[in-house]
Amino acid sequence: FADPLTPRAFAHVFPAPPVRALSNARVHSKSSVEGKDNHFTITVRTVTHIHQGGGLLIWPPAGFVFETLCTPQRYPYSYESYEAMLPSDVVCIHRPAADGRMYITLMAGAAGIAPASYKFQLEGLN
Fold it and tell me: Please, which residues have CB within 8 angstroms of residue 10's CB and are 6 or more apart in sequence?
């Protein structure tokens, strides 16, 4: 094998766009009592820009229900300066799936959703 640091006649490096992905996704619930109102804290990092009309899809486990009028709220105890709130023009859409579960789409507005770490809360029912 050749030394990888040795210049090669037919090798070239091409810049590539970042992979469209999410990382560091976590969901924490305030309570695990079945049938009780709950605050779901969602943390996620977007790696690339999400353009207008794109968004984040949140599928809860069976038995969990988000509020019909979903509005992402700022996480009140966020001391980490690196965690941003979703842009104010993000629209929260609550829809039923074929299996009966309700899912949420957080749809990007005109400015999109910039690459960042986000932390927010949604109201729901265990």
Answer: none
What is the separation of C-alpha 27 from the centre of its chain, rounded to a whole number of angstroms? 10
Residues with Cβ within 8 Å of residue 113, at least 6 apart in sequence: 46, 49, 50, 54, 55, 56, 86, 87, 90
Integer angstrom CA distances of residue 24 from 17, 34, 83, 109, 123: 20, 27, 12, 23, 21
Here the tokens at position 103 are 């899912």
pTM of the model: 0.73
Task: Decide if pLDDT at 110 tops 90.
Answer: yes
Output the six-digit token pair for 48: 């690339």
Which amino acid type is present at position 19?
A: V
What is the structure's pLDDT at 18?
66
